[in-house]
Amino acid sequence: MLRTIDLRGTRPSTAGLLALVPRAATDVSAALDAARSIIDEVREHGETALLDQAERFDGVRPSAVRVPADELAAALEGLAPEIRAAALQTIERVRAASEAQVPAPQTTVLAAGAVVEQRWQPVARVGLYVPGGKAVYPSSVIMNVVPAQVAGVRSIALASPAQSEFGGRIHPTIAGIAALLGITEVYAMGGAGAIGAFAYGVEGIGLEPVQRVTGPGNVFVAAAKRVVQSVTGIDAEAGPTDILVIADDSADPDFVAADLVSQAEHDELAAAVLVTDSPELAARVAERLEARVTATKHSARVREAIDGVQSAVVLVDDLEQAADFANAFGPEHLEIQVRDVDATLARIENAGAIFVGSFSPVSLGDYAAGSNHVLPTGGQARHASGLSAATFLRPQQVVRYDEQALREVAPVIAALSTEEDLPAHGEAVTARFPR
Ligand SMILES: NC(=O)c1ccc[n+]([C@@H]2O[C@H](COP(=O)([O-])OP(=O)(O)OC[C@H]3O[C@@H](n4cnc5c(N)ncnc54)[C@H](O)[C@@H]3O)[C@@H](O)[C@H]2O)c1
Ligand SMILES: N[C@H](CO)Cc1c[nH]c[nH+]1
Ligand SMILES: [Zn+2]
Predict the structure, then answer these.
(1) Which domain holds residue 46?
(2) Helix, strand, coil share of the chain (percent; to 5)
(3) ipTM exceeding 0.90, yes/no
(4) Is residue 128 classed as helix, strand or coil in its secondary structure?
(5) What residues form the catalytic site here (predicted)?
(6) Does the Cβ of 371 fall within 6 Å of ligand 2?
(7) Domain for residue 133, yes or no?
(8) N or C: which end of the chain has fewer CB within 10 A?
């Protein structure tokens, strides 16, 4: 069960807190070498490597990596009505929230005839990863595709691992929801190989390199995204899930336990952390946790995650210290279940997504809140953010000066170019004003 980190009576510095933050023993950096060699195989041997890797890691050899159009059409046709309806509702909510993430273009007039515009340009082509190992993630199709479409990305490719249960095809619900969203370029490939295929392209199957790879995945997927960052953009390292709950004695211990188990269910490497100023609450959560871990379907996986070094109950003196710890941890998901939620919320700087109050569990955000569930893990939320329409957009500056506006600023350019000993820069301006 959860180990205890007792911070009561201490006031560690940020560096001190960072050293105490629980993290999995197998992290992204530990998976880098494996990811790199898997990517190299794909660069060298293309589709054959992807088929070999499916056989090796997914236990099945697909007949081809590219998913044929008729398979997508059949999957769309075969979507169960309740799944189709749930997907459509999620799509509608995620689309509405994603539209609000598109920044407005700006025009700044610095003087008469001197204008700097800022426009938001979508990346041209993206590769979206949808996990499918220990669990399959049709919801991640929506979380990837919708913001890319809202941003105006022209070319979208999607990948998910081959499933042995379906003879090497991708999971039919993933195929069906991709088709529902109008995606036609889909590949049965998983893990680091899929990320490498997106980054470098695969000749022979028409897979052209992408400019950005996004989507969640296990530690190998996250490591592969780190490896390919020099050739393609990524969203964030959205690897093995974590949840951190800040709770005081007003929280319902069963709600807290249920939420910790819900995210531990993803992966043995998932982190479940409770931070509380109430030892009584900690004890009651531990009781409920034991009952829930024993009863839940994926009990062995959940127990391994909860028992892992990455999971803990952290005892603090007060909720200010709880917020300091959360900021050092940089959780993917932060839940705040305390009496005065806004006071704690105001102290939070770092989190992928924040779930406030007793009736906003992480599972809500996983499927139906309208927020995006692809979020930075492993402390990356200290500097990165979750997937959004903005992930697929780049600000570009457009400079528009007329003759008079350039003439007015010419002495500034002359002074600075002379100071930098780059006189040709100044001459490019004076050439325009010979007299
Ligand atoms: N942070 C987020 O936004 C977010 C969202 C959803 C899920 N997740 C995480 O995504 C992950 C999903 O993992 P999954 O395993 O179910 O699916 P996955 O698709 O991420 O991983 C399966 C693939 O991993 C590769 N693989 C498996 N074993 C390997 C090995 N020993 N060496 C090299 N490669 C190997 C294979 O290529 C396989 O196809 C979980 O960790 C979950 O927590 C994160
Ligand atoms: N909790 C995951 C994000 O870390 C997302 C997810 C998808 N399905 C279930 N959960
Ligand atoms: Zn989840």
Answers:
(1) 29-238+389-393
(2) 50, 20, 35
(3) yes
(4) strand
(5) 332-333
(6) no
(7) yes
(8) C
Is the same domain home to 246 and 313? Answer: yes
DSSP 233-276: EES----S-EEEEEE-TTS-HHHHHHHHHHHHTT-TT-EEEEEE
| pLDDT tens track for 235-280 | 999 999 999 999 999 999 999 999 999 999 999 999 999 999 999 9
Measured between alpha carbons, how far is 341 from 328 in angstroms, rounded to an integer? 19
The answer to whether 241 is annotated as binding is yes
What the block records as the tokens of 118 is 């800022």
pTM score, two decimals? 0.97
Question: 224 and 299 in one domain?
Answer: no
Q: Report CA 159 to chain centroid distance, whole Å.
A: 16
Catalytic residues: 332-333
Paired tokens of 361: 């569990």
Annotated ligand binding at 263? The verdict is: yes
Return the residue whose CA atom lies nearest to atom 3 of ligand 2. Answer: 373
397 and 291 Cβ atoms separated by less than 8 Å: no
Number of domains in the chain: 3
In 161-311, beta strands by DSSP E: 185-188, 212-214, 233-234, 242-247, 271-276
Sequential DSSP letters for 80-111: -HHHHHHHHHHHHHHHHHHHTTSPPPEEEEEE
My answer on whether 15 and 60 are in the same domain is no
Q: Whose CA is nearest to atom 10 of ligand 2?
A: 366
For residue 435, name the pLDDT band (cuts at 50, 70, 90). Answer: confident
